[in-house]
Specification:
Distance between the termini: 42 Å
Strand content: 15-25%
Radius of gyration: 22 Å
Helix content: 25-40%
CATH architecture of the largest domain: 3-Layer(bba) Sandwich
Number of helices: 16
Shape: globular
Structural class: alpha+beta
CATH class of the largest domain: Alpha Beta
CATH superfamily of the largest domain: FAD/NAD(P)-binding domain
Length: about 525
């Protein structure tokens, strides 16, 4: 993906679809639309997945807790989509065992029956069957679990992925099909012909140039910012979203040395809590805190950090403290509240809604990563009707994503940072071998190598130091302090690749240092 070439195409044509938003929703729409043969442009004000879509729990899952709530239809849809993602992106998605530890006699039949239903609802796309564990088997799966009064456990299976890398794979898939996908292009207004939306006015965040781009239909896929774009269309429109903040802590792998995750079915506020092995670390979360409005860089609240530490300590023999936190991050969920204002956000379902305004603006609201493909299908169906485009079937159920590489039996390389490149791995390895300095680690506490910075700039449209350290690699999440220490060297190499000067590199380091400070807990 070459940004300059894509920018040059902005005004060359009238687009069938203009998609605003480069997170899971928007990228999924771009893939689906272009796969149907519709000429598609996607614009994102920041970087791909810069917001919520890179701050998830890293799970592709049916949603065990929605089953408990009785929302069977949502679980069935999510389990089916989980199976499709598992099949279409094997280099990015893996099977992960989750253990629910049991400390009361009735938890065995209660969770056992519920998870057997979970298996059955997955049908032929089931990953592996759930089963009861005795205390010895439970400790084999999760050696660090609290043993006092431990009666055993229940193990079930869901899928794990790298959200930012998945978003990038979607962007690359769309581009490979012929779409134009652009980061750092901010929509500042909608173009209208009479009462109907017919395009967008965008500002290039790098050059400052303003472009007026025409399209047959505009899709609002801006996640937690959707109400803001809707107000550009209807200034008096009623807000439809109830944003909720979820926080995660990243700890050393010693806190969860086994290969399985822990699912805590009941916390202080009624949410489930996960402790998950991820990229050589342990990811623990999440919270569900209503927030007043959307933020691009939400910050974990001290009470949210305390909540996770307190609940995690009940299930881990070694109690984590603030001093153990390598990074903590927050993401905001775009929950559709509508007329149900005042409900606790944990009680608001994660279904998606496609809304068409009187002017023809199509908005995709709500949803979650697991169901991004179905969300896109529904959105493109609606957009094609609005635009009067020829009806064409959705083909993404069978569409392999960029980098697809066959899953190998017994694959244990998931913590290898080159695994996520899939079929492109040999090309990345060639870059690493092209210069001795490019084979060096960014930092002794980070698994990435300098050549991956070069690859990110040349092939993955990385434009800033943050793009590289937060999303092309996950350095910011794996160890915020180490990423800051690595920042000067990374910025220097990135500047050389992008043709920037030393002043630019210094400015990038200063900005990134301030950003990373927000990923360490407040006292």
């Amino acid at each position: 993906m070459e940004r300059a070439k894509m920018v040059a195409q902005l005004a060359e044509r009238t687009w069938d679809l203009i998609v605003v938003g480069g997170g899971a929703s928007g990228l999924g729409v771009a893939v689906d639309a272009q796969a149907r043969g519709y000429r598609t442009l996607l614009v994102e004000q920041g970087d791909f997945a810069q917001g919520t879509s890179s701050r998830s729990t890293k799970l592709v899952h049916g949603g065990v807790r929605y089953l408990k709530q009785g929302n069977v239809s949502l679980v069935v849809e999510a389990l089916r989509e989980r199976g499709l993602i598992f099949r279409n992106a094997p280099h990015l998605v893996r099977d992960l065992a989750f253990v629910v530890p049991r400390y009361r006699w009735w938890e065995g039949p209660f969770y056992g029956v519920g998870l057997k239903l979970y298996d059955r609802l997955a049908g032929e796309l089931q990953l592996a069957p759930s089963r009861l564990l005795d205390p010895r088997q439970t400790l084999e799966q999760i050696p660090n679990v609290e043993t006092h009064h431990l009666l055993g456990g229940v193990v079930y299976h869901d899928a794990q992925f790298d959200d930012a890398r998945m978003a990038l794979a979607l962007a690359q898939t769309a581009a490979g099909l012929g779409a134009v996908v652009l980061n750092y292009l901010r929509v500042e207004g909608l173009l209208k012909g009479g009462e109907m939306v017919e395009g967008v006015r965008v500002v290039d965040g790098e050059s400052g140039h303003i472009h007026e781009v025409k399209g047959r239909v505009v899709v609002n896929a801006t996640g937690v910012f959707s109400d803001g774009l809707r107000r550009l269309d209807e200034p008096a429109g009623r807000p439809l979203l109830a944003p909720s903040q979820g926080v995660h802590l990243v700890l050393d792998r010693a806190f969860l040395p086994g290969e399985a995750a822990i699912m805590v079915p009941q916390t202080d506020d009624g949410r489930v809590l996960f402790a998950i092995p991820w990229q050589g670390r342990v990811l623990v979360g999440t919270t569900d805190t209503p927030v007043a409005g959307p933020e691009l860089e939400p910050r974990p609240l001290p009470e949210e950090v305390d909540f996770i530490l307190r609940n995690a300590a009940r299930y881990l023999r070694r109690d984590p403290t603030r001093a153990d936190i390598l990074s903590c991050f927050a993401g905001q969920r775009p929950l559709v509240q509508g007329k149900r204002a005042g409900r606790a956000t944990k009680a608001v379902a994660r279904e998606h809604t496609v809304l068409v305004s009187p002017s023809g603006l199509v908005s995709i609201l709500g949803g979650k990563w697991t169901t991004y493909r179905r969300m896109a299908q529904d959105t493109v169906d609606a957009a094609a009707l609005v635009a009067g485009l020829p009806a064409r079937p959705c083909i993404t159920e069978e569409l392999r994503l960029h980098g697809w590489a066959a899953r190998r039996e017994g694959d244990t390389g998931w913590e290898d940072p080159l695994h996520a490149y899939g079929a492109e791995r040999p090309e990345v390895e060639a870059v690493l071998a092209a210069h001795p300095a490019w084979a060096r680690l960014l930092h002794p506490r980070l698994p990435y190598r300098m050549g991956q910075v070069v690859w990110a700039a040349r092939a993955e449209m990385a434009r800033t130091l943050e793009d590289v350290l937060a999303r092309r690699t996950r350095s910011l999440l794996l160890d915020a302090r180490a990423s800051v220490e690595a920042a000067p060297a990374v910025a220097g190499l990135l500047a050389a690749e992008l043709g920037r000067d030393e002043a630019w590199a210094r400015g990038q380091v200063e900005h990134y240092t301030r950003l990373a400070a927000g990923y360490l807990p407040l006292d």
